[in-house]
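name: query_chain
kind: protein
chains: 1
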Amino acid sequence: MSAPTTKYATTADGLSIAYQDLGGPGPAVIWLTGTASHVELLWEIPGWAHLIRRLSSVSRFVWFDKRGAGLSDRTLGSGLLEDRIDDIRAVMDAVGLESAIVIGSSEGGAIAALFAATHPERVEKLIMVASWAHAPALGEFASVFEESWGEGVLMELVWAQGMRDQELLGRIERAMATPTGVAGLVRAIGSIDVRPVLPLVAAHAWVIHCTEDPVVPIEHAHEVAALLPHGDLVEIGGAFHMSARPADVDLLADAIERVLVGPERTSLLSTDRALATVLFTDIVGSTDQAATLGDARWAQVLDDHDRICRRAVEEVRGRIVKMTGDGLLATFDGPATAITAAHQMIDRLGVLGVHVRAGIHTGEVERRGDDIGGIGVNLAARVMAAAGDDEVWVSSTVPGLTVGAPIEFTSLGTHDLKGIPSRWELFEARISAG
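structure:
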């Protein structure tokens, strides 16, 4: 099999994502690689080429370079996790897939899980290969890779155990990214934390991991499988992350094929429940302001408020669920964009002398037509109620999902929130200067 033609999908923020579509029999598969990715040159790694050939013989196999690497746009755009999961949506839309089996390897596993929780209707099954939920120690590799980038060090460690062609590995690295670019990607990896997200994955999931993986210890797979509500752990023998040796790859391919061609398993969770970031805002002291200004002037203030808030939400591709009279309820694919929108509202309304407060929580919500409900919505409302004038407060699920965003969090300690079980640690979120 020769490498197929590389094509491009366009993301919501206008980036080009390089992908290849190997139209084979069986179910559709979308594969997210880790940091080391190049949809054309990785065909020169014998192990990866062998894996593609095997999987595309039993599935329609689609894979792509995530933003920032390979043949996709080298910029991360905003760099936010919610934008990176949009790469998956863009490719699925480009190849005409409403849903697919989503596979993520290495770093791609965490992003695949985030996509599965956010868009449950588009994920038939989830497979996480050699992946993790939170591994801050991996970020420590950044300076090492930056210093040796282009010599094949990362490729040999991550992709090509058993391969001795250092010149080829170095050439692939140089084509994938620049030294500073890969260092930024690796540092971001160490900040990813999808542990709060995994219990919200509706699809059945398989966690496939080598027992002696030299990059990601097997303990990470145990943690991931335990957090997934329908997660099966599949341990395979071997001491590799990804490998150039066909014998190693066959062990991995065997495990994946059993999932691809296995019997369908219906999720016990409804796709009416999904991961979302919920933003609540309200005008501070609205009753007193209304009494002071009078009905006519107050009505104009509310019109200006609604216009400004709608624009702030739409600018970051959020969705307004409803206006609440003196505030709003909105949802976003991730917390970084919600925080950005909240601060835009505060800044723009402040010019008019209107002060607002905001509360944000990332968690499970129930879809009720155009409305949403559930404890995730209630929690965001309670967080907002605790915030002060022109402040954005967030729950403890938020900081680990804002990788790449210029946001600073200050712990506000643990709080009792009315009607919400247990105490919650809350944070104030501010946009970093510069």
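note: The two ends are 50 Å apart (CA to CA).
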